[in-house]
Each structure stands twice: as C-alpha cells, then as structure tokens.
C-alpha cells in the first residue's frame, strides 16, 4: 500500500510544481509583453513631441508671415494717405501691431512647449511603467522558483510521512 500512495504523492507534487513553474513563466511573459508595449508607447510619445515641435515651428512661421503682411498693408495704406510712418498715430499703430504680433508669437511658443512637455511626461511615465513591468517579470520568475521549491519540499515531506505511516504497517 505504501508504494502506490507515496508514488501518487510524488506525482501530485510534480504536477503541482510544474503548474507553479508554468504560471511563473506565463506571468513573467505577460510582464515582459507589458514592458514592450510601454516601451513602444514611450517611443510614440517622443515622436509626438517631435511632431508637435515641428508643428509649432510651422505655426510660428505662418504667424510671422501674416504679421509681416499685415504690417506691410498698414504701411501702404498709411503712406497712401500721406501719413508719416515714423510719427504720431501711424507710429503708434505700427508699434501696437508689432507688440500684438510678439504676444501672439509667444502664445504659440508657450502652447507648443506645453504640448511637448505633456508628451515628455507621458513618455517618462511609459518608460517607468516599462521598467516596473520588467521588474515584475523578474519577480514572477523568482517567486516561481520559490513556489516550485516549496511545493517540492512539501511533497517530499508528505512522501516521507506516508512512508513512515504506511511503512510501519
């Protein structure tokens, strides 16, 4: 009676240990996959930041072209009206137009910088998430090794107890 019971205990231990090991490997693989996804998302955030920088430069260039066009139209209109462009209301209008143009340009720059900062933060968060997932993958394997060892030791203890119990009879 001892041999079949003890053998079943060993088989059960082996199956349990294999299941624990398989679960650890699967958990590690899932964490590595999550790390790869987070790495890809970090790359996409960096790409989005570069795209935003390009878009901001383009918008700023378009703004300055419109600003130059507006100032040119104002000068032509004032000159056609016989106004001295460097004096009085004409000079004030030119200065105000330039000031508003600089304010608009600064708004474009600030908005672009804020958007880039958001992408940079997002990318940093994804890189941290990837690192945490890689650590979880390693932790799952270490936990699995301990789980397999615990299962094996428990099974050995059970086998020993069964041999003692049934070996005496």
Describe this structure in words.
With 169 residues, the chain is mostly helical. The protein has one domain (2-167). Helices cover 94% and strands 0% of the residues. It has 2 helices and no strands. The protein starts with a helix and ends with a helix. The model has no long low-confidence stretch (mean pLDDT 91).
Give the key terms:
about 170 residues, mainly alpha, 2 helices, about 95% helix, coiled coil, signal, Gp14, Phage protein
Summarize the structure.
This is Phage protein. With 169 residues, the protein is mostly helical.
- Topology as H/E string? HH
Strand percentage lies at under 5%
Radius of gyration over all CA atoms, rounded = 36 Å
Helix share bin: over 70%
If helices are DSSP runs of H or I spanning 4 or more residues, what is the number of helices? 2
Question: Averaging pLDDT over every residue, what do you get?
Answer: 91
The parts where pLDDT drops under 50 for at least 5 residues are none
Number of spatially distinct domains? 1
Note the main sheet: none
Q: Rough shape?
A: rod-shaped
| Alpha-beta classification | mainly alpha
Number of strands: 0
First and last CA, distance: 9 Å
Signal peptide: 1-23
InterPro entries: Gp14
Protein name: Phage protein
Coiled coil: 34-61
């Amino acid at each position: 009676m001892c041999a079949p019971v003890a053998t079943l205990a060993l088989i059960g231990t082996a199956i349990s240990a294999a299941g624990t090991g398989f679960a650890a490997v699967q958990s590690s693989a899932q964490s590595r996959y999550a790390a790869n996804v987070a790495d890809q998302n970090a790359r996409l955030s960096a790409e989005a930041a570069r795209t935003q920088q390009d878009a901001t430069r383009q918008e700023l260039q378009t703004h300055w072209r419109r600003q130059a066009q507006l100032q040119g139209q104002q000068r032509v209109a004032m000159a056609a009206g016989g106004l001295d462009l460097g004096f009085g209301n004409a000079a004030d209008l030119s200065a105000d137009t330039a000031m508003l143009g600089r304010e608009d340009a600064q708004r474009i720059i600030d908005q672009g910088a804020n958007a880039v900062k958001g992408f940079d933060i997002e990318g940093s968060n994804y890189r941290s998430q990837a690192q945490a997932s890689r650590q979880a993958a390693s932790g799952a394997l270490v936990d699995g090794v301990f789980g397999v060892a615990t299962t094996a030791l428990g099974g050995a203890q059970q086998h020993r107890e069964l041999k003692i119990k049934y070996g005496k009879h």
